[in-house]
TrEMBL record:
<keyword id="KW-0175">Coiled coil</keyword>
<feature type="coiled-coil region">
    <location>
        <begin position="63"/>
        <end position="111"/>
    </location>
</feature>
<dbReference type="GO" id="GO:0009011">
    <property type="term" value="F:alpha-1,4-glucan glucosyltransferase (ADP-glucose donor) activity"/>
</dbReference>
<keyword id="KW-0328">Glycosyltransferase</keyword>
<dbReference type="Pfam" id="PF08323">
    <property type="entry name" value="Glyco_transf_5"/>
</dbReference>
<protein>
    <recommendedName>
        <fullName>starch synthase</fullName>
        <ecNumber>2.4.1.21</ecNumber>
    </recommendedName>
</protein>
<keyword id="KW-0750">Starch biosynthesis</keyword>
<dbReference type="GO" id="GO:0019252">
    <property type="term" value="P:starch biosynthetic process"/>
</dbReference>
<dbReference type="InterPro" id="IPR013534">
    <property type="entry name" value="Starch_synth_cat_dom"/>
</dbReference>
<keyword id="KW-0808">Transferase</keyword>
<feature type="domain" description="Starch synthase catalytic">
    <location>
        <begin position="185"/>
        <end position="424"/>
    </location>
</feature>
<comment type="pathway">
    <text>Glycan biosynthesis; starch biosynthesis.</text>
</comment>
């Protein structure tokens, strides 16, 4: 029996019925009683061999044992699987919890309410200085504390903001023991900021650059005049500081009301003159005969507020001629009032916009005309009897940033300085060229909710869908081989109209569809519409650019975007086109000055270098020819362009950060 068991016991999945060398003929087989579990109930009728019967019974016992083992193993397997599933579920819950905590951590960094609490602390410091609770020196240290710990301080001081000044101050002093300085404190003094008040490219520049700088750990503030046209609904937590801030103007001190709030996480201070209340209570921002008086008053008031509130910024960032007077004001008057460590950076968005005035008017804000009306200071290079305020900003600033996406520093100084070229040449070592960026949080085909299908450089299928959707929406024939060209303009001159007409007629024999969109003033849209009548072409469609969703679809559906210039700080058409996989081609393709590119290569921007090597010198006909005859090369250009980062967070922010670093080391 032992031998039988040792040789016959098999694994459950290996068991087979026994085979006999000489099978015994069976006369009959009794039925197995279903209610019985005993093998002895099975009877064989045949030759009556007792040994065969005994062997069969043993085999059935082994079979039942094997079945029992199978059931036990199955139960153990099911139990093991259940345990494994339980462990996996617990693991998934743990991973989900970790991810949730990480998201909460990231959200804590970016939560608007935390940034608001941070700015509430900063504004509280301002008010304590103005009310004599703390000195300007201590206030500067406290601001540095808030700047270096702006993401952790709100959690510590949220409750304490409801306490008294003495208790808050004690908590801040205790916390300041762990202070470490590792970032910049920048104060913009300017006349525009999106979305509060916007006329030109300055507004979006100030807001976007400030947001980009704060993302990298810097503390950025903005000081604006309290224009009557200013949209106060966009300001969070707007309130008036109770203490009145006085500033010097026209031989005496005058009071100003100070308002504070937050816009996109940026601390904003609004200055409202009490005596000269009409300065900023007007329909327009600019264009008045007393603009010099208006903005000189604001500039002096801003500096006085910075001093009296105890701010010690690393950089006071001024813009255009409207606040350029801060340069001479700072170095002749303010620097000795505790701002020895502060430096001045001037940004010029349009060198053609200058302010010439009689020298004696400088006395209004406390400056000495005899000291400043000199060739090496504010005296205008052409009209020697006048002072040039923008020139004074260039001379008295530590760094000068000229905003230009495509032109080299040498080209700007030599050809586009509008009479300031002698001054810029003298100070060229502190002149920097920076490109405009664009808002990639709103303009990105991979996340754009206006599009029927989103896409990116690695998967361009969605662009084909967008093209078909655009053609269908405008009633154009849907052919994949048709080239779709979007034409997007703001202000349209008669010269632009004639060139557009010439382009359309020149390509009339090619399978090209045009979508002409006027973005901006209604007069521009109507002017573009005047092309429709003489052309009368089913492949040319005119649309109103006020439709935001359609504007996004035009960029996504077009193969090429015709634009007026590669330097487009307002609409940013070339930058958006590149991001959406459409080649930007200018109407005046040879007017951008890439011919001397190599000579000034070291003075140009990344954007300029990329454009010059891809689409810079290309006409529309050349672009269409390359799409048709060399599609692989064209596709590489398009995908390379989509993968480039031309947002505010990239080159523009990096250039300004480098400038601030250089100023810090002066």
């Amino acid at each position: 029996m032992k031998a039988l068991m040792s040789s016959s016991i098999l694994r459950p999945w290996q068991w087979q019925p026994p085979h006999q060398k000489t099978p015994t003929p069976l006369v009959c087989c009794s039925a197995v009683n279903a209610s019985s579990s005993s093998s002895s109930e099975m009877k064989f009728k045949g030759d009556g061999n007792a040994e065969s019967v005994s062997r069969a019974e043993d085999l059935w016992k082994l079979f039942r044992e094997a079945q029992k083992n199978i059931l036990q193993l199955n139960q153990q397997r099911v139990k093991a699987v259940e345990e494994l599933n339980k462990i996996n579920r617990e693991k998934e819950l743990l991973v989900d919890r970790i991810e949730q905590l990480e998201l909460e951590k990231q959200a804590a960094i970016a939560r608007p309410q935390d940034r608001v609490s941070c700015w509430e602390l900063l504004f509280w410091i301002d008010s304590t200085v103005l009310n004599g609770i703390v000195t300007t020196v201590e206030a500067s240290d406290l601001r540095r504390l808030v700047m270096d710990n702006k993401f952790s301080l709100p959690e510590v001081f949220n409750d304490n903001l409801q306490k008294g000044d003495t208790e808050i101050l004690a908590e801040l002093r205790h916390f300041s023991e762990r202070i470490k300085r590792n970032s910049f404190h920048i104060v913009h003094v300017c006349t525009e900021m999106a979305p509060l008040v916007s006329v030109g490219s300055l507004a979006s520049y100030v807001t976007s650059l400030s947001c980009a700088l704060q993302k990298k750990g810097n503390l950025v503030e903005v000081i604006l005049p309290k224009f009557s046209s200013l949209d106060l609904n966009e300001v969070q937590g707007l309130k008036e500081i109770e203490a009145e801030c006085y500033s010097y103007y026209n031989g005496q001190l005058h009071g100003n009301k100070i308002w504070t709030g937050i816009v996109y996480g940026i601390g904003v201070t609004l200055i409202q003159p009490v005596y000269y209340s009409s300065f900023f209570n007007r329909e327009r921002l600019y264009g008045y005969s007393d603009d010099f008086e208006r903005f000189t008053y604001f500039s002096r008031a801003s500096l006085d507020y910075i001093v009296k509130s105890g701010k010690r910024p690393d950089v006071i960032h001024i813009h255009n001629w409207e606040t350029a007077i801060i340069g001479p004001l700072f170095w002749d008057i303010t620097v000795k009032q505790g701002l020895e460590g502060t430096r001045i950076l001037l940004t010029c968005h349009d060198l053609n916009s200058q302010c010439l005035e009689h020298p004696e008017k400088l006395e209004l804000c406390g400056l000495d005309p005899a000291r400043l009306h000199r060739p090496d200071r504010l005296q205008d290079n052409t009209k020697a009897h006048l002072v040039n305020i923008l020139k004074g900003g260039v001379v008295y600033s530590n760094k000068v940033v000229i905003m230009s996406s495509i032109l080299s520093k040498g080209r700007v100084i030599q050809s586009l300085s509008h009479g300031l070229d002698p001054t810029l040449n003298i100070h060229k070592n502190k002149v920097i060229i920076a490109p405009c960026g664009f808002d990639n949080s709103t303009w990105d085909p991979s996340t754009d909710n206006f599009l029927p299908v989103q896409y990116n450089a690695k998967d361009m299928k969605g662009k084909t869908v967008c093209k078909a959707a655009l053609q269908q929406h405008l009633g154009l024939s849907e052919h994949a081989s048709t080239f779709l060209v979007g034409c997007i303009f703001s202000k349209v001159s008669d010269v632009d109209l004639e060139k557009l007409k010439e382009i359309f007629l020149k390509t009339s024999g090619i399978d090209v569809q045009y979508i002409v969109m006027g973005i901006g003033k209604i007069s521009s849209v109507n002017k573009l519409g005047s092309l429709h009548e003489p052309l009368k072409d089913a492949n040319v469609q005119f649309i109103d650019g006020n439709d935001e969703a359609l504007s996004h679809l035009v960029f996504a559906g077009s193969d090429i975007i015709l634009c007026q210039s590669f330097h487009d700080p307002g609409l940013q058409v070339p930058l958006k086109a590149l991001k959406y996989g459409a080649a930007p081609i200018t109407v005046n393709s040879n007017d951008e000055g890439f011919g001397n590119f190599v000579e000034h290569n070291y003075e140009t921007t990344n954007f300029s270098r990329f454009i010059s090597s891809t689409f810079g010198n290309m006409t529309l006909s050349q672009a269409l020819d390359e799409i048709k005859n060399n599609p692989s090369k064209w596709k590489r250009k398009i995908t390379d362009a989509m993968e480039m980062d031309f947002s505010w967070d990239a080159e523009c922010c990096d250039i300004h950060t480098s400038a601030y670093t250089a100023l810090k080391n002066l």
